[in-house]
Design goal:
With about 550 residues, the chain is mostly helical. It has one domain. Helix content is about 70%, strand content about 0%. A hairpin with a 5-residue loop joins strand 1 and strand 2. The longest helix is centred in the last third of the chain and has 32 residues. The C terminus is likely disordered. It comes from Saltatorellus ferox. Keywords: Ligase, Membrane, Transmembrane, Transmembrane helix. Its main location: membrane.
């Protein structure tokens, strides 16, 4: 147990170092993923863990309490920004789901357990709000540098799942009896007692897609821009981190044998390699200089080349290993098993036609699917709806279901709009920054799609606490906050009245009036410093 705790904490520290941040808020965020691991070989299990004899429950509660308390302290210190974000319309779906679920608690099998789980959901959301204020505070401290780039934010969040992968690989060596599970049909999968295989698949997919995006962005910088974007040492570090993350994620993704994760990984790759959309409207085209149009076309052609290469590699792998891939994907089952969602469709049918009509407005109570007999199906009680959206409909009624849809769809739409509507700059440095920002938003859109799809077969953003829930709420507030666009607005059009008024309207991260006036008077020097900053290339050929 002690060895497992040490491995997990060291893995979190290593991932934080690889992410390139010393933020206390992000350190607590990384620790928040560790309670999802089962580190005690004498207990293990996904649900049936009783008592504190083995120390596993104490470990989970202790780490979660430390992380939650630390986030609460940071939230109190930044309470002005936190309350400003909570007052924004984007927070309404989450707060609405919490409030409506509280109303239905008397109907739950065990209201106190349900209330505790709801508190965890709210704590995850507040964690995301505090992380958004961290990005905003950095933006205010370094206005001349354009704040934190979207790519840096996505890197920090994606690598937060790396401790899960590192710990899984370490336990496959130290305690393979809880890291792997062999079914009656002889299929051996990573996950078992350590962590659910599908959750491991989700975690590895997120890290895998980030690594692919990071390597492709570095490749585009070398071919489409001046390779002297930053120091040779920094470029080597970026590539090394991405390659290590790619190797770890690929290993866990393969051994988890999660069908949902493999499908979403391929879908995410398809999204990443879509060509950047060139501006099509007459207004956009009229404001672009010939140099800007040429650079955007060159970057788009680079993406097409990368898409062709990736497609050829995928086809080559399928052509040479079709039998192995089929065996890996089928896992000893049949096509009928896949068509039924491994038995899930029967459960969904009963929940939708039997349970939902009983309480269509308030629901049956949050987490009423319990081993105590919340819902009977196929001869025994179920504690998992295996579908986020259906779970919300059954447990919180139609209002809660609409809140969950909004929680998933809102950031998905925002990421889509920013991924496929690039904002070109007026200088080479700004055009390059715009391209990198668009790459980050494309990755964000792919990750949001993964969260939406994984919710079809798992808990997702509602239900029992899980990795996907914490990851989604960790990004939710930032994606929908002014801080997510502050980087681009600072670098592009910093001297225009429109940009200044937009920054002033960003309530959580707006500077005081006197500071804003000073910044307006020094717009040209600020733009010069932005081009000379460490994140901005000094020259782009």
């Amino acid at each position: 147990m002690i060895l497992g705790m040490a491995v997990a904490v060291l893995a979190a520290g290593l991932a934080l170092f690889m992410a390139g941040t010393r933020s206390v808020a992000y350190a607590l965020f990384y620790l928040s993923f560790l309670p999802f691991l089962t580190l005690d070989p004498s207990q293990g299990g996904l649900v049936s863990i009783d008592g504190l004899e083995g120390g596993n429950v104490a470990w989970k509660l202790g780490v979660r309490a430390i992380a939650t308390l630390g986030i609460a302290v940071l939230g109190y210190r930044r309470r002005g920004e936190v309350f400003a974000l909570l007052a924004r319309p984007a927070s309404l779906p989450v707060l609405g789901l919490f409030a409506w679920a509280v109303i239905g608690l008397p109907r739950a099998q065990d209201p106190w357990v349900s209330f505790f789980r709801l508190g965890e959901l709210l704590a995850f959301f507040v964690t995301g709000v505090v992380l958004a204020t961290e990005v905003g505070a950095r933006h205010d401290r370094e206005p001349g540098r354009g704040g934190i780039a979207p790519g840096d934010v996505v890197r920090r969040h994606a690598l937060a799942l790396l401790p899960v992968l590192i710990s899984a690989i370490a336990f496959s060596v130290l305690h393979p009896e809880i890291a792997f599970h062999e079914s009656t049909s002889g299929v051996r999968r990573m996950g078992h007692k350590f962590m659910n295989s599908n959750v491991l698949g989700f975690s590895s997919t997120v890290v895998f897609l980030w690594a692919v995006s990071a390597l492709r962005a570095r490749w585009a910088l070398h071919l489409g821009a001046d390779p002297a974007t930053n120091s040779r040492r920094e470029r080597l570090r970026e590539v090394t981190v991405a390659l290590v993350a790619l190797g770890l994620a690929s290993y866990v993704l393969y051994h988890s044998r999660s069908r949902t994760a493999s499908i979403t990984a391929l879908g995410g790759l398809a999204i990443l390699f879509l060509p950047w959309r060139a501006p099509r409207s007459s207004g956009e085209t009229a404001t672009m200089s010939p140099g800007v149009s040429a650079d955007m076309a060159r970057l788009a052609s680079l993406r097409r080349i990368g898409a062709v290469i990736a497609a050829c590699l995928v086809l080559a792998v399928f052509a040479t290993s079709i039998g192995t891939i089929e065996e890996w994907f089928m896992r000893g089952g049949t096509s009928a098993d896949i068509a039924s969602g491994t038995g899930r469709t029967g459960l969904w049918h009963d929940l939708l036609l039997v349970q939902v009509p009983k309480a269509p407005l308030v629901g049956a109570g949050y987490l009423n699917l319990s081993s105590a007999g919340g819902f009977e199906h196929a001869g025994h009680a179920w504690n998992n709806a295996h579908n986020t959206y259906l779970f919300a409909l059954v447990s919180t009624g139609l209002p809660g279901f609409l809140c969950v849809l909004s929680i998933v769809a809102w950031p998905l739409l925002v990421a889509f709009q920013r991924a496929f509507r690039p904002l070109p700059g007026s200088s080479p440095a700004e055009r390059l920054r715009s391209a990198l920002d668009q790459e980050a938003w494309t990755l964000l859109f792919a990750l949001q799609v993964i969260v939406a799809i994984s919710g079809i077969t798992g808990f997702g953003v509602a239900g029992y606490p899980n990795v996907a829930m914490l990851f989604h709420y960790g990004l939710f507030a930032w994606v929908l906050s002014p801080a997510s666009t502050a980087h681009a607005s600072e670098a592009i059009g910093a001297s225009t009245d429109a940009t200044c008024s937009a920054r002033q309207s960003a309530v959580p991260f707006a500077a005081p009036p006197a500071a804003t006036a000073t910044r307006l008077r020094s717009a040209v020097p600020r733009l010069t410093r932005a081009v000379r900053g460490p994140q901005i290339p000094r020259s782009v050929r």
